[in-house]
From TrEMBL:
It comes from Nocardia mangyaensis. The chain crosses the membrane at residues 30-54, 66-85, 97-122, 134-154, 160-179. Keywords: Membrane, Transmembrane, Transmembrane helix. This is Uncharacterized protein. The keyword Membrane applies.
């Protein structure tokens, strides 16, 4: 085999290596997004359970309307994160977009919590919510998904707001990366029809 033939094989081989590397990176970012979305789904479920349990123990501790809407939002977020993770694990682009929307919403709620803290927002409706927590406990509260973000808004907690932002950002980043999009775009298509 002459030198030109060997050089000619080098280009397709290099392209194959680059494609394989992109596929591997995309697989890693997709798996990371799926795992973190699972964590976010569980966090929202736990947050919803804490709200319901607290309300059943002491109905006067939480504002009824806010508790109801926050619990429903947390359950919706848990479904979006969970189902989006399942679809992304199947290399379905719809799952990636579900995670982007759910994580973006979580991030925005956390930012609202930080903004409410910054401007010392008070709704003047006399909302009863959890009492102000120490910083370490507020960090844990903030990782409670939507309930954590709402707690940051109502109680003006920097720590809870930053945690809620971090939870959304941790899922949003790997889901929005171009390698994850390439990974879902490279999903093998099933053969349509039968061979004759």
């Amino acid at each position: 085999m002459d030198h030109h033939a060997v050089a000619g094989l080098g280009i397709p081989l290099a392209i194959m290596v680059v494609r394989e590397t992109k596929s591997t990176v995309g697989e890693v970012t997709a798996i990371t997004a799926v795992c973190l979305a699972g964590v976010a789904a569980v966090a929202n479920l736990i947050g919803a359970l804490v709200l319901v349990r607290t309300h059943l123990r002491d109905p006067g501790l939480l504002d009824d309307s806010l508790m109801l809407f926050t619990t429903l939002a947390a359950l919706l977020a848990a479904i979006a994160f969970g189902y989006g993770a399942v679809l992304l694990a199947r290399r379905d682009e719809t799952g990636r977009w579900m995670l982007i929307v759910a994580a973006g919403t979580q991030l925005v709620l956390g930012l609202f919590g930080l903004l409410a803290t910054l401007v010392n927002f008070d709704s003047e409706y006399g909302i009863h919510w959890f009492a102000a927590e120490p910083v370490l406990r507020s960090i844990v509260v903030g990782f409670g998904g939507v309930p954590g973000a709402v707690t940051a808004i109502v109680n003006h907690s920097w720590a809870a707001g930053l945690s809620a932002v971090a939870l959304g950002a941790l899922v949003l980043l790997p889901a929005a990366l171009p390698w994850t999009a390439s990974y879902t775009a490279a999903r093998p298509r099933p053969d349509v029809g039968t061979a004759v």
